[in-house]
Specification:
- By secondary structure, this protein is α/β, with parallel strands linked by helices.
- The chain has a single domain (8-123), classed as Rossmann fold, CATH 3.40.50.2300.
- It is 42% helix and 17% strand.
- It has helices at 16-28, 39-48, 65-74, 88-92, 109-124; strands at 8-12, 32-36, 53-57, 81-84, 101-103.
- A 5-stranded parallel β-sheet has the order 2-1-3-4-5, sandwiched between helices.
- Residues 8-120 form the Response regulatory domain.
- It comes from Salinimonas sediminis.
- GO terms for molecular function: DNA binding.
- The modification 4-aspartylphosphate is found at residue 57.
- This is DNA-binding response regulator.
Length: 129
């Protein structure tokens, strides 16, 4: 159990209802959450701040989530990326994605929280070569 771990999360989601639901729960846990509704806004925030996890929608209005993920992974520091999608079709497009995990049901907030905690913890303890 991670207890009161405070995470800094970037939520990249173009659906305002989904983004609001996720953000509300995360801030209720005491996490620091930034929100971007587009790939361009997400890139700007990622360049300005360090995040423990990036929660990334598969389909954004200006870029595919996989493309944005690849760009984020090229920059340092590179936070873990958790893909989300409101549709099964969106998740199905990710068999070989550059992200670290996929949350198959965007409405399952408990699962998303657990996955964020696991990714943040694993990123904090890198495996030495």
């Amino acid at each position: 159990m991670l207890g009161k771990q405070v995470l800094h999360i970037l939520v990249v989601e173009n659906d305002p209802v989904t983004a609001s639901s996720i953000t509300r729960v995360m801030t209720g846990l005491g996490w620091q959450v930034d929100f971007a509704a587009s790939g361009r806004a997400a890139q700007k925030l990622h360049l300005e701040k360090e995040y423990d996890v990036v929660l990334l929608d598969v389909a954004l209005p200006d870029v595919e989530g996989t493309q944005l993920c690849a760009q984020i992974k090229q920059q340092q520091p590179s936070p873990p990326v958790l893909f989300i999608s409101a549709t099964e079709k969106g998740v199905a497009t990710l068999p070989h994605h550059p992200g670290d995990d996929i949350a198959p049901d965007v409405s399952d907030i408990k699962d998303i929280i657990a996955r964020c905690q696991a990714l943040a913890t694993s990123a904090s303890f890198p495996v030495s070569a």
